[in-house]
Amino acid sequence: MALTLAMPWMLVAVGILILAAIVVGLLLGLRRGPEARGDSGALVARAERVRALPSFARAVRRRRAALVGVIVLGLAASALAAVIAARPVTAQTIQPENNSRDVMLCLDVSGSMSDVDVEVLSVFEELIEGFEGERIGLTIFNSSPVQVFPLTDDYAFVQAQLQRIRESFDYLEEIPEHWIGTLNGPGASLIGDGLASCAMRFDHVDEERARSIILATDNELNGESVITLDEAAAFTASRGIRLYTINPVDGIAEAESTALSDAAAMTGGIGFGLRDATTVDEIIDEVQKQEASTLRGEATVIQIDTPQLWIVALMIVVLGFLLVLWRVRL
Q1: Is the dihedral of CA 11, 14, 18, 20 positive or negative?
Q2: What is the pTM (predicted TM-score) of this model?
Q3: Which positions ≥6 away from 187 have C-beta within 8 Å?
Q4: Mind listing the pLDDT tens digit for each residue in 209-221?
């Protein structure tokens, strides 16, 4: 930054030096008077005959042309130095494109899930390692949903946030991170409400994109939700989102387990078990089977300094100026 700020002043200094050189050159040229001719101002008989000689006339014309060249090149160098000092820039419009899919991680953080949520988050981290460019988001819910982070392809940020939520299950804080905002309603583990909230977290809803939700819950409803799991699955399907469910509890009742798989099937998705050996690989394969689409980011205008051609032109003109000045001195 300091170098960038100093450059205009350096170029101004170069311009001043060039102007000084022009003045010196003109003064030296004007000195080519009587003393320079070696006659000390003495009168010479028949001088008009000398002036009439063709060679003398050519010498005078060359000298005048050289002096004019000194002035023109000096002015050109000054103009170029002024342009460079003004820092010429080129404006360029950049509109980033992201060819990918959108995946929302949806995690039930109710009390019945507390023993397995750390394991689920580890599976989420494995999924992130297997994805290639997909935008990832995370929403957690209990009696109310909270978006931990929106869809992003910054995987380092995603990993850091997953680690932060996982550490909150160590309960080292008086109010763990996963409690904040998730206990604002009556009841607990309101799966339908949580799923619907996850489905509403996708952006660019007017664009056709491959969208998926990976829902981890034991489906043990405790309270009255606004919408049921089936209604939330139908809402998810209406938005063109595929649901993949993860059953994290081995001893889950058959009815709850079947309901999760049926909800996933309603959207074209599949239900998986948390500890199945192929769960991570199969979810990644299923997500990436969907065709990636282009998402255009917000257009940004950037300005790039482009002094290179001007600097080259200045160097050429200064070199020409010095050569002509040398000729004048001869």
Answers
A1: positive
A2: 0.63
A3: 143, 221, 222, 223, 224, 225
A4: 899 999 999 998 8
